[in-house]
Amino acid sequence: MEMKGKLGVFLSKIKNESGEYEILQLLEKSLDTTNPEKGEVPIKLLGFGEISLVFEILSDKTKNLAFKRLPIFDSEEQVNKHINGYNEYNRLLNDDLQIEVPPSDAAWVYADKKMKKISLYCIQDKISQPESIGNKIIHQVGIDDVKNLILIIMRETKKVWKFNKSNVDNGKQIGLDGQISNWVVKNFDPKDPHVTIDSKLVYIDTSTPMFRINGEDAMEGILFLKSAPFFLRWILKLFFLDEVLDRYYDWREVIIDLIANFHKEQLPEMIPDLLNVVNEFFVSEAKEFNIEPITLKEIDKYYKNDKMIWVLFQNFRRFDRFLKKIFRKKYDFYLPDKIKR
Ligand SMILES: Nc1ncnc2c1ncn2[C@@H]1O[C@H](COP(=O)(O)OP(=O)(O)O)[C@@H](O)[C@H]1O
Ligand SMILES: [Mg+2]
């Protein structure tokens, strides 16, 4: 796992002669979030999560890099804190827990002339084989390979909760978003697509630093909600923020989320078999954690609930964008086409 010592290497690829991130500044200035590939800086979308936009910048220097744009910061202090958390999170996962993550870096620029808003770009090695990302794999292989994938994901996530268990006393806890789209299978061959229990995984979703020291989050939780329309933020903060954040620190919840996602991926028929893998794992390889088996009913209930929250959220964001268009304000976030659920 060669990651240490790489910090900073990527940044030289996006600096101009005066040491500025000129290409990111230009990108910020010209980015059209409804049509991100049509701006002045040629980019190609690699993916998006519920909140972030992930793309490559089509230039010689940057061609093997993935950029995750987080346009959510109000001050240098805030963004620097986030970058420290991000670097530490990557280090914790990769070096301390031996969960491999791609080499990474971070750079920020002011997103507007008044220097009020800041966009952070988390930079990673680009995954060279898009087919090797979990949410693509599960549509290319049969149930036995998907079961293997879930088993090896269980083994990776166990590293986190083993750490958490042994650090309860000193108050250091690590969170993880176990969703299938956050895992990449190394050496996956789309021409002979298979996942075995010896396959190696890479975890890519590191831009949200999730660790706590004595109950204090490395990231400001409220940043999570920055993509929410202003009129919704306080509601979300009141009712959902703690619940949403805590979920990533609870192994059972993380796995429920992982399995329930097969509904969204239109593969509900796989769920019973995958639940068997998970529950079998809990009573064998993780028996010291005393985790209660997850039931099908819980998965279905969770999915309906989660779906409701996110559909609402996305629809509110569309409405918010509509309002901003009317009032000619810049809309900061990319809105995916209606996600099929
Ligand atoms: N390094 C990368 N190379 C190629 N594609 C990536 C990379 N990182 C992320 N992606 C794509 O973008 C998607 C979202 O990225 P992720 O880091 O999981 O952000 P989010 O927090 O929004 O889920 C991934 O599922 C993947 O399809
Ligand atoms: Mg993700």
- The CATH topology of the domain at 10-125 corresponds to Phosphorylase Kinase, domain 1
Using DSSP, what is the number of strands? Answer: 10
Give a list of the ligands. adenosine-5'-diphosphate, magnesium ion
Structural class: alpha+beta
Strand arrangement, largest sheet? 1-2-3-5-4
* Poorly predicted residue ranges: 1-5
Which helices and strands appear, and what pairs or packs with what?
Elements: H1 22-30, E1 43-48, E2 53-57, E3 65-73, H2 76-96, E4 104-110, E5 118-125, H3 134-137, H4 143-166, E6 172-174, E7 183-185, E8 201-203, E9 211-213, E10 216-217, H5 230-239, H6 241-247, H7 251-264, H8 271-283, H9 296-326
Antiparallel strand pairs: 1-2, 2-3, 3-5, 4-5, 6-9, 7-8, 9-10
Please give a structural write-up.
With 341 residues, this protein is α+β, with helices and mostly antiparallel strands. The protein has helices at residues 22-30, 76-96, 134-137, 143-166, 230-239, 241-247, 251-264, 271-283, 296-326; strands spanning 43-48, 53-57, 65-73, 104-110, 118-125, 172-174, 183-185, 201-203, 211-213, 216-217. Strand 1 and strand 2 (53-57) form a beta hairpin. Helix 7 packs antiparallel against helix 8 (271-283). The longest helix has 31 residues, at 296-326. It is globular, with a radius of gyration of 20 Å. It binds adenosine-5'-diphosphate and magnesium ion (MG). Magnesium ion binds next to loops.
